[in-house]
Amino acid sequence: MRQLSQCLMVVALLAEAGCTTLNATDVATNPPLQTLYDTRLIDAATAAAQTLPALTPQLASADVVVIGEYHGHPAAHLLQSQVQQALYQARPNQVLTLEQFAIDRQPALDLYLQGETGEREMMEDAAAWDNYRASYRPLVEFAIANGLPVVAANAPANVVRCVGRLGPGYLDSLPAEVRDTLPEQPFVGSDAYRDKFLSAMGEGRHGAGDQGRLMNSYQAQLLRDNTMASRILLAHQQHPGAQIIHLTGTFHSESHLGTIEALQHRAPELSIAVLSPVHTNSDGEFPDIETHRHKGDVLYLLRPLPVPFKDPERQIQHFQQQFAGAPAVDCTPAR
């Protein structure tokens, strides 16, 4: 009854506030986005600009809402927090699932959710991403304040790296207690997703000897997607009637590929709404929406971040230093 009354209240507010809609031609003539916090929501079905209140009933009806992101973009993370709160008001039975924590770190995350550790302790023990405080803290704290579950959904980082090095057969060497935490079907994918991944990795720039490594990298990507899909489905099963809010990099969900198709493979009956980011140009001016409508059920426009490197040599040095500082991973198969 409480949920029904809240939904009716939202509908009443929407009727009073109305919404701003624009056709595909008008979108391009809108005032440009001014700051790196600004977004503009587009209903992909109609190519019409919408407000979040206007879209909330549509999103609230989905079993799973997946918000793709450009990692570290302030507009993406601000919108995620706003969507989380808006959907909670309409449907307070909610679970937050996150690509940003791996499944083997769930115990450390749980200790923090239960108030038994501090934030810094959680960040260290759960291997939180470097941008946790700026990007994900508001969503986790909102969940804690409202007694909502938070689920670590990504595959363990060391397992992903070893699959990327040795291929999918590496999973067969894992101890049973580790392998049992991973999905039974860890490499569900599609030709469309494979082609997109290989294109993004610059397949044409690699020699024949690198093709095996590229395919191993793709299998590692599928392991992430399928682990997230299995955790979303498990959260749905463990919390009947709850709406799942899942945060992930947009590559994992864009065009309903990756995690989305892995989830649909497991549970085709679930209704899934995907929000996908689309860059404006550097002046904040809107792109041609028609070329992006396939990317999600709702698009959100945001300004691109500053270019990190203009000197290619410095970019190479930066990544070399990052890889050099990464912890060593032993991929020797267990005997």
Give a written overview of the molecule.
Strands 2-1-8-7-3-6-4-5 form an eight-stranded mixed beta sheet, sandwiched between helices. The protein has one domain: Rossmann fold, CATH 3.40.50.11550. The model is unreliable at 1-25 (pLDDT under 50). The radius of gyration is 21 Å and the shape is globular. The protein is built from 14 helices and eight strands. Strand 1 and strand 2 (48-50) form a beta hairpin. The protein is an alpha/beta fold and 335 residues long. The protein has helices at residues 2-17, 24-27, 52-60, 74-90, 106-113, 119-125, 132-135, 137-145, 157-166, 176-179, 191-200, 211-238, 259-266, 312-325, and strands at residues 40-43, 48-50, 64-69, 94-102, 150-154, 243-249, 272-279, 298-302. Residues 57-262 form the Haem-binding uptake Tiki superfamily ChaN domain. Keywords: Signal. InterPro entries: Cofac_haem-bd_dom (IPR007314).
Write a short abstract of this structure:
The protein has 335 residues and is an alpha/beta fold. It is 44% helix and 14% strand.
Question: Topology of this structure?
Answer:
Layout: H1 2-17, H2 24-27, E1 40-43, E2 48-50, H3 52-60, E3 64-69, H4 74-90, E4 94-102, H5 106-113, H6 119-125, H7 132-135, H8 137-145, E5 150-154, H9 157-166, H10 176-179, H11 191-200, H12 211-238, E6 243-249, H13 259-266, E7 272-279, E8 298-302, H14 312-325
Parallel strand pairs: 3-6, 3-7, 4-5, 4-6, 7-8
Antiparallel strand pairs: 1-2, 1-8
Helix pairs in contact: 1-3, 3-4, 5-6, 9-12, 12-13
Domain Haem-binding uptake Tiki superfamily ChaN: 57-262
Signal peptide: 1-24
Pfam families: Cofac_haem_bdg (PF04187)
